[in-house]
Amino acid sequence: MAKAPPKPWPTGEAEQIEPLVRRVLAPNPSPFTYTGTQTYIVGLGDGCAVIDPGPDEPAHLAALEAAIGGEHVCAIMCTHTHRDHSPGSRPLARRTGAPIVGCAPLAFDTAGPRADEGFDPEYAPDRVLADGEAMSGPGWTLTALATPGHVSNHLCFALEESGALFSGDHVMGWSTSVVVPPDGDMGDYMASLQLLHERDDRVLYPAHGPAVTKPRQLVRSMIGHRRQRENQILRLLGEARQQVGELVAQMYKGLDPKLTKAAALSVTAHLIDLERRGLVVRSEDIWQTS
């Protein structure tokens, strides 16, 4: 996990990062959002799409409106429904009249402690994009790529005209994604990483952190990192039956206490995947190799 760059950050500024793409950083930095959520505006002139409008934060919405100016908004597109990604879709839709398009809504009980921003229960898309479906506007086409794992409804969006992929929280340059059961699934996450590794995207634009200019190299290292964690768990459980907290203490030495819950949830996601594959078993909260 990389440290945030020194301030000032370009919060609220519209940055032109390639001819069809502008980026606006929301003022919601945290240990889980890095410097904040990055909203992307795709298209210039006759019509645009807004990807991951971010939190329902007045300053961020004002910055988006300033960046859009008088341009027609064709769609407001969400990669997934964490609270730092999709709540801004509703006020932006009211202001622009644009439809909310992208991932499916989630409906399940989110009670209990969580290590991320939590889910947006009011997300209500006008159109859900299935894997391979596209949204288009003047001079641009965004194709949905189903990438479950971080959450079950996660989508990436491929900008066909430039070879860029908006990767949401699935792949980020500053940190690996938190996979939080029960909706987050480590097996799905690994399969989605493999899917991206087999693509030839030119650049990834994540919702948090810098652009990824060597996508296949980074994704390959992320797959290796997760396999290393998996092997570490199997080795530790081969030595002794253990609880999740005991595993975390051995696997994440020197971890910032703020991130302990996230680490525990990540380990739990690995354990559930290993259990499904018949490599570990549990008795109440004690895990061991099978």
List the helices and strands and how they pair.
Layout: E1 14-18, E2 21-25, E3 38-42, E4 48-51, H1 58-68, E5 73-78, H2 89-96, E6 100-102, E7 127-128, E8 134-137, E9 140-146, E10 155-159, E11 164-168, H3 186-197, E12 203-206, H4 215-239, H5 244-251, H6 260-276, E13 280-283, E14 286-289
Parallel strand pairs: 4-5, 5-6, 6-7, 11-12
Antiparallel strand pairs: 1-2, 2-3, 3-4, 8-9, 9-10, 10-11, 13-14
Helix pairs in contact: 3-4, 5-6
Structural notes for this entry:
By secondary structure, this protein is an alpha/beta fold. The protein has two domains: 14-223, 4-Layer Sandwich (Metallo-beta-lactamase, Chain A), CATH 3.60.15; 226-289, Arc Repressor Mutant, subunit A. Helix content is 28%, strand content 22%. It has a seven-stranded mixed β-sheet with strand order 1-2-3-4-5-6-7. It has a five-stranded mixed β-sheet with strand order 8-9-10-11-12, with no helix packed on it. The protein has a two-stranded antiparallel ribbon with strand order 13-14. α5 (244-251) crosses α6. It is elongated, with a radius of gyration of 19 Å. 43% of the residues are buried. The model is unreliable at 110-115 (pLDDT under 50).
